[in-house]
Amino acid sequence: MLKTKSLALSLLFSLGLSATASATVITFDDLPATESDAIAAGYHGLNWGDEFWTSVAYMHKDTLPGTGFETGVISGNYAAFNNFATTSTITGDIFTFNGTYLTAAWNNGLNIEVSGFLNDVLLFTQTVIVTTTNAQWFDFNYNGINKLSFRSWGGSPTTPGEGGEHFVMDNFTINESAKVPESSPLALLLIGLTAIAFGRRAKTH
């Protein structure tokens, strides 16, 4: 009987009847080559802001050397930032926000409030503090959300009278739940035969 149970479980898992999740690291290096631009809606299946003024944009690390726009790049040549230093939102289908590298573009001691929502209901929120000198990885693990909000404020300008409350973000990592595949007629037949075999085996014991 144990052998039959094991066979049934093996069939279920081999037919892919359980959902899985796959990690996606978004580096922003597969965007069109330019000095700076807003990220278009649909990039990696997400919407990167409601309008241009509050969008998430991206910038080449050589555009503003000596700032966090340069030190905040972890891989390749590009990283994202909050356009016009406004509160930026990222929306899409339900996902898990694992974490990201964050850096201050201009202000040392910059505060960044990162909030996760499901259908506009706040589920998670955390405030981190970053500098211009190096990118820091932050684990968030916001599970089951469909909107992220990034709000930055404060800190002290590295150069008085210059800069703003922008943050830089790279290697943005999420988990997207894989869809459960539909069962084929053959799969259903195999499951049915296994159930019949299990029932007969149980009656003889």
Write a concise synopsis of the structure shown:
The protein is of the alpha+beta class.
What summary fits the major beta sheet?
9 strands, antiparallel
**Number of DSSP E strands:** 11
H-E string: HEEEHEEEEEEEEH
What sort of overall outline do the alpha carbons produce when their principal axes are compared? globular
Q: How many helical elements?
A: 3
Global mean pLDDT: 84
Structural class: alpha+beta
What is the straight-line distance between the termini? 9 Å
Q: Oligomeric status of the shown chains?
A: single chain
- Low-confidence region ranges: 1-19, 178-184, 186-191, 193-198
Structural descriptors:
11 strands; alpha+beta; disordered N terminus; two-stranded antiparallel ribbon; single chain; 205 residues
